[in-house]
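S.,

Sequence below, as promised.
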Amino acid sequence: MTNRQLENYRQAFEELNSILEMNFEAITIANSEGIFTKISKSFEEKFGITQSDIIGQSAFKLEKEGFFDRSVTCEVLKKKKKVTIIQKAAANKILLVTGIPIFNKNKEIQKIINISKDITETKKLESDLNNLQIEHEWLKQELFKRTNDKDRITYESVAMNNIVTLIDHVAKMDATVLLLGETGVGKGFITKLVHEKSGRRDGPFITINCGAIPENLLESELFGYEKGSFTGASKEGKKGLFEMAENGTIFLDEIGDMPLSLQVKLLHVLDERKVRRIGGFKSIDVNARVIAATNKNLKELVKKGDFREDLFYRLNVVPITIPSLRERKEDLPSLINMFLSKTNNKYGVKKTISEEAMRSLYDYEYPGNIRELQNLIERLVITTIGDKIEAAKVFDIIEPIQQKNMQDIIPLKEAVEQLEKKLLLSAFKKYKTTRKVAEALQIDQSTVVKKANKFQLKTNIAKI
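The prediction came back faster than expected:
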């Protein structure tokens, strides 16, 4: 080999070294057996690996030892072509690596040049972006749920499933709906559900409690008045609620408390779809769906002459009776969890309910229905010190209510059962086993087990 040829090789070697030293990308060179022969200075700086750590090492061995999860050098030797992979390397680095084979004249791989780009931060940003997109979607769904609570109802019972199925059917028709049921069963909630599932969902939803407003004011609220029609009237007059509910829904709550004198006018509105303001002479067309609700027995009121029979039949087109909470106790767990979650979010706490406390809540009769349950859960969350609501705290609240209810005249058999149930709950809480409970109550152990099953106390107490 001539001196000129040697000089050319030396210059090429120095140029290669310069490229390796100056290149911003991390570069490694391996031979045909996958042994690393050279690494760039940038590789050392980026990955904290010295030349002595990697030069002379086999890519196959480093891959096996977990230096990286996949070796691009090994992939190039297997596939005999250029390969690009995502590689997880030591020190939690994520690399985009391209392996380029260099062939000799016999088309055999002579060496492999690997160019590695550190994309750890890029992948992290990609992951963060993905997480943000997931969080954004979750927030959108939560916002949709919260702004559409009217569309949601928590239930497990067959009775409520039948009601929701009926609502889905009748909501799309403009028929008058009459909701019946005790105070607190959720008649207002069901009304909003009907409105939101109807073709009037984009129209106004107007509600008025017919039993909470004096008769003289109720008429002006419902039907409006013309200017100067009575002392104190607005100079411009006032629209009534039927006019304000145009193309929407008007909810007449506690319809059983409406005075007879106004029942006649309401019947006229339902028949003619027109209202006449107080002091007015012309009729105004109205287009509003009417939903009425009451906790009273309208048929009994009709018999007594306190409610017009013709109005009753006009309202009773689609009657829906909402059962009390004690008639659908299978709905209690989901309702309790829903109210607990909402109350925790409201006050920024994370209270939970013990198994015994849950049983106590399940055994209570809820004379105030869902409204009472919601109030009870909020009181428990607020007054409980610590993170767990225990049965003792439940008893502190419901026991005075039960004692007050016991003052009412009820069948003797029912009163005896209530007392037995209460005594058993207290005894199990204190003594834990059926044998000790039987001794304390001075009855047979088999009787304790039998009555616990009868009252569905669901105790996990040992029988010894």
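The chain has 20 helices and 16 strands.

Coffee later?
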